[in-house]
């Protein structure tokens, strides 16, 4: 199936499988996949390692803002990099997950990430996932999805994913973390997680990846006449 040069924006709640689905879409249609959450997670790791956020999530906003001027977070062969260092594993830890939503409320952090994301968007044929892609980063994206699923199912999926990577996890901790992030993400002042008016909702609680892909292909055929 060949689809036109478009931007696909995927937003939704934590651990709804946005990034897994986005990777499959990228592979299926030869699109570039961009994980906006990885940039927020990268900034969070940087903030933790450099003392810009305390254990109780108090943030040194002026210090972090100044440091962002020289912070180089980008994508490469191993995934996400901070300068030369591959940080893909560290940014997926529960420690980073526990601090990323407070960090993502800081306007200067959002500006930093948005600038990077919009650079990529100059080219079409990209699929990007996050919380505000269809509403703020690419409001003109030609196709917007909003993903949701039952919280317990999401927690089980995320815990299984972490266990498969050899991390020890407690299901309750994972559930608590994703509910906390959903709350902060939906209630922050700037670019809160909301469904764009023209987004199509995908509740994948009881769908396999294959089901999702078939559903999407149907939607694309209908929408773009291809
Ligand atoms: O994959 P998962 O759903 O766990 O989250 P993620 O996409 O890696 O994003 C991690 C966190 O970054 C989210 O909980 C948000 O707080 C923040 N984020 C955001 O504010 N805006 C985005 N476009 C993407 C992520």
Largest beta-sheet characterization: 5 strands, parallel
Which architecture does the CATH hierarchy give at level 2? 3-Layer(aba) Sandwich
Please name the fourth-level CATH homologous superfamily.
P-loop containing nucleotide triphosphate hydrolases
Average predicted local confidence, pLDDT = 96
Beta-strand content estimate: 15-25%
Q: What does it look like?
A:
The strands form two sheets. The protein has a five-stranded parallel β-sheet. Strands 3-4-5 form a three-stranded antiparallel β-sheet. The chain has helices at 18-29, 36-49, 61-68, 94-103, 107-120, 133-137, 151-164, 171-187, 209-224, and strands spanning 7-12, 32-35, 73-76, 79-82, 85-86, 126-130, 143-148, 200-203. It has a single domain, classed as Rossmann fold (3-Layer(aba) Sandwich), CATH 3.40.50.300. The chain has nine helices and eight strands. It is globular and about 50 Å long. The model has no long low-confidence stretch (mean pLDDT 96). It is an alpha/beta fold and 226 residues long. It binds cytidine-5'-diphosphate (CDP). Cytidine-5'-diphosphate binds at residues 14-15, 19, 36-37, 40-41, 100-101, 104, 130-133, 181, 185.
In short:
This protein has 226 residues and is of the alpha/beta class. It contains nine helices and eight strands. A five-stranded parallel β-sheet has the order 2-6-1-7-8. A three-stranded antiparallel β-sheet has the order 3-4-5.
């Amino acid at each position: 199936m060949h689809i036109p040069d478009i931007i696909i924006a995927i937003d939704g709640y934590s651990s709804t499988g946005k990034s897994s689905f986005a990777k499959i879409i990228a592979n299926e249609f030869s699109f570039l996949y961009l994980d906006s959450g990885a940039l927020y997670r990268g900034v969070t790791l940087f903030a933790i390692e450099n003392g810009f956020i305390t254990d109780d999530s108090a943030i040194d906003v002026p210090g972090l803002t100044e440091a962002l001027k020289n912070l180089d977070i980008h994508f490469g062969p191993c995934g996400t990099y901070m300068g030369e260092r591959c940080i893909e594993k560290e940014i997926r830890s529960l420690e980073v997950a526990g601090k990323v939503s407070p960090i993502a409320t800081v306007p200067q952090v959002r500006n930093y990430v948005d600038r990077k994301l919009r650079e990529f968007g100059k080219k079409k044929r990209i699929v990007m996932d996050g919380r505000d892609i269809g509403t703020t980063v690419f409001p003109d994206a030609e196709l917007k999805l909003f993903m949701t699923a039952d919280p317990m199912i999401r927690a089980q999926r995320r815990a299984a994913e972490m266990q498969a990577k050899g991390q020890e996890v407690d299901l309750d901790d994972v559930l608590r973390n994703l509910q906390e992030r959903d709350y902060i993400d939906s209630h922050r002042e700037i670019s809160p997680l909301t469904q764009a008016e023209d987004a199509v909702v995908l509740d994948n609680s009881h769908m396999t990846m294959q089901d999702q892909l078939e559903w999407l292909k149907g939607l694309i055929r209908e929408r773009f006449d291809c």
